[in-house]
C-alpha cells in the first residue's frame, strides 16, 4: 500500500531530528560549526555543450525530497532550524523548479534565490568553520567542498540505518518497481523484445533513465548470463526460454533494486531451478537479523547455492568441496548484496566504525559490497544467482577443476543464461521486513 501523504508528513519530523543529531555529532568530531551541502551542478560532455542527466548530491537529498534542484544549498547548524537556499533561476530555456512546497517546508528557513551566486549571501559568514560536503565543481567563492573525513565517515556510517520515514520512502520505491516488474513479465510472455520489455517497464513505473536508480537490466535467454546486461536487442529472439530483469524505481530520491527470473515453459526444468533459487533466497532473507554478520550471510549463500548445483546434477562434488575449491564462485560470481537507500549501492558498506576503518572482504570474495554486522534499520539486498558463464567455466577447467562439473548438465542449462532473485530487506529488532515480497504479495 502506498504511504499516504499524512503518514509521510507525520514521519518526517523524527527523520529531520535524527539528521540534526547526527550532524551535531559529526560536526563536533570534525571541529566545525556548520554543515553546508550544495545540491550539485550540471556536468557536460567533453568538447560538447550537452549536459549529463543531473544527479543530486546524496548528502543533500537526505534532508528533503529534492532531486531536481541544481545550484541549491543546505545549511545545518546545531541548535538552529536548517536553512535551505533554493535556486529558482530566471530561465526560459528550461523548466524552472516549482516553489518549494510540501510536508517538509515548514521545518526549514527557506530563501529563494534567482542566480547561483546569490547563495553566497545566505551561507554562514565564515567558510573556514564549515564542513562543506560536495563535489569540487560545486565550489562557490570561499565555499569550496572540503569533505572532512571525520564528518563524512560519521554521517555515512550512520546513514546505513534508515529512519521510519526513509523506510516509508523505500516501501513506495518498491511498490512502483513491483508494479513495473509485473508489466514486464506480461510483456515477456506476450513475446516482446528486450527493448520492448524495457519500454513497458518504464511506462508502468512512469520513470525513465533520468529517474530510475540504475540502468535496467533486461535479458532474454543467454543474455541472462551477463550480470549487467544493458544492450537490449530491438527484436525478439526466435525462441523464448528465459527472462531476467533487474530493475528498480525511485521515490523522493530513495531506491528499490529488484530482480526476478522467469522461465517461458513453466513446467520445465529451468522453472524448477528458478524455484530452487527462489526458496533458497527466501531462507537467506530470513537471516537478515540484528547482530548477524553479512559476510557470513554471503558465505552461507555459497553453500546453499552449491547444494542446488548438486541437487540438479550440475556438479559432481559435495557442496562443501564446491565452496572450498571455488567451484561455487564460477556459478555465483558476485556478492550476495549490498546496502541500499539514497544510492542503489549505499555508501559505507565496509565501514568499521563511525570514525573510519575498513572491514575486509572474505578472501576469495572480491565482489562483496557489504561486510558490516546487521543492525536494526539497515536495508540490504539479498540477491543470490546461478549463471552459466563461459569465461568462468573455462577458468575452472584451466584450474584442473573440470571433473567437478557435469558438463552435459551445464550444456542443457546454458541456453537459459542464468538466474538471479533480488529483494530489498529491512533489518528490524525482530522479524525481517521484505519490502519487495510485501509488494509482490499485495
Ligand atoms: N542492480 C544492480 C545490483 O543489483 O546491484
Ligand atoms: Mn542489487
Ligand atoms: Mn539489482
From TrEMBL:
This is Xaa-Pro dipeptidase. Binds 2 manganese ions per subunit. It is an enzyme of class 3 (hydrolase). HAMAP family: X_Pro_dipeptid (MF_01279). Its EC number is 3.4.13.9. Its cofactor is Mn(2+). Belongs to the peptidase M24B family. Bacterial-type prolidase subfamily. InterPro entries: Creatin/AminoP/Spt16_N, Creatinase/aminopeptidase-like, PepQ_N, Pept_M24, Peptidase_M24B_aminopep-P_CS, X-Pro_dipept-like, X_Pro_dipept. Splits dipeptides with a prolyl residue in the C-terminal position. Residues 169-429 form the Peptidase M24 domain. Pfam families: PepQ_N, Peptidase_M24. GO terms for biological process: proteolysis. Mn(2+) 2 binds at residues 246, 257, 422. Mn(2+) 1 binds at residues 257, 338, 383, 422. It catalyses: Xaa-L-Pro dipeptide + H2O = an L-alpha-amino acid + L-proline. Keywords: Dipeptidase, Hydrolase, Manganese, Metal-binding, Metalloprotease, Protease. PANTHER family: XAA-PRO AMINOPEPTIDASE 3, XAA-PRO DIPEPTIDASE. Residues 11-157 form the Xaa-Pro dipeptidase N-terminal domain.
Amino acid at each position: 500500500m502506498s504511504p499516504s501523504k499524512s503518514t509521510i508528513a507525520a514521519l518526517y519530523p523524527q527523520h529531520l531530528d535524527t539528521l540534526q543529531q547526527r550532524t551535531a555529532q559529526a560536526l563536533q568530531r570534525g571541529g566545525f560549526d556548520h554543515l553546508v551541502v550544495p545540491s550539485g551542478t550540471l556536468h557536460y560532455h567533453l568538447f560538447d555543450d550537452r549536459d549529463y542527466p543531473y544527479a543530486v548530491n546524496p548528502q543533500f537529498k537526505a534532508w528533503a525530497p529534492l532531486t531536481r534542484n541544481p545550484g541549491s544549498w543546505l545549511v545545518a547548524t546545531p541548535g538552529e532550524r536548517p536553512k535551505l537556499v533554493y535556486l529558482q533561476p530566471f530561465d526560459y530555456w528550461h523548466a524552472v523548479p516549482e516553489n518549494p512546497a510540501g510536508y517538509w517546508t515548514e521545518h526549514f528557513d527557506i530563501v529563494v534565490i534567482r542566480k547561483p551566486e546569490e547563495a553566497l549571501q545566505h551561507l554562514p559568514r565564515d567558510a573556514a568553520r564549515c564542513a562543506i560536503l560536495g563535489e569540487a565543481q560545486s565550489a562557490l567563492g570561499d565555499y569550496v567542498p572540503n569533505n572532512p573525513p571525520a564528518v563524512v565517515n560519521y554521517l555515512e556510517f550512520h546513514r546505513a540505518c534508515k529512519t521510519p520515514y526513509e523506510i516509508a520512502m523505500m516501501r513506495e520505491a518498491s511498490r512502483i518497481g513491483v508494479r513495473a516488474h509485473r508489466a514486464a513479465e506480461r510483456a515477456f510472455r506476450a513475446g516482446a523484445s528486450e527493448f520492448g520489455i524495457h519500454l513497458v517497464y518504464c511506462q508502468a513505473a512512469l520513470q525513465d533513465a533520468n529517474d530510475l536508480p540504475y540502468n535496467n537490466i533486461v535479458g532474454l535467454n543467454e543474455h541472462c548470463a551477463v550480470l549487467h546486461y544493458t544492450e537490449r536487442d530491438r527484436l525478439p529472439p526466435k525462441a523464448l526460454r528465459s527472462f531476467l530483469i533487474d530493475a528498480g524505481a525511485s521515490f523522493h530520491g530513495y531506491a528499490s533494486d529488484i530482480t526476478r527470473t522467469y522461465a517461458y515453459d513453466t513446467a520445465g526444468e529451468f522453472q524448477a531451478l528458478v524455484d530452487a533459487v527462489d526458496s533458497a533466497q527466501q531462507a537467506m532473507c530470513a537471516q537478515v537479523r540484528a547482530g548477524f554478520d553479512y559476510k557470513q550471510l554471503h558465505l552461507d549463500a555459497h553453500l546453499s547455492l552449491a547444494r542446488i548445483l548438486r541437487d540438479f546434477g550440475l556438479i559432481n562434488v559435495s557442496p562443501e568441496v564446491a565452496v572450498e575449491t571455488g567451484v561455487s564462485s564460477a556459478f555465483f560470481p558476485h556478492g550476495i548484496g549490498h546496502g541500499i537507500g539514497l544510492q542503489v549501492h549505499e555508501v559505507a558498506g565496509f565501514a568499521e566504525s563511525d570514525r573510519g576503518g575498513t572491514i575486509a572482504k572474505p578472501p576469495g570474495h572480491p565482489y562483496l559490497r557489504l561486510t558490516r554486522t546487521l543492525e536494526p534499520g539497515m536495508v540490504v539486498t539479498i540477491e543470490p544467482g546461478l549463471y552459466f558463464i563461459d569465461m568462468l567455466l573455462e577458468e575452472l577447467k584451466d584450474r584442473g577443476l573440470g571433473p567437478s562439473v557435469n558438463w552435459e548438465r551445464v550444456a542443457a542449462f546454458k541456453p537459459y543464461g542464468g538466474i538471479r532473485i533480488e529483494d530489498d530487506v529491512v533489518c528490524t529488532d525482530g522479524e525481517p521486513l521484505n519490502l519487495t515480497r510485501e509488494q509482490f504479495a499485495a
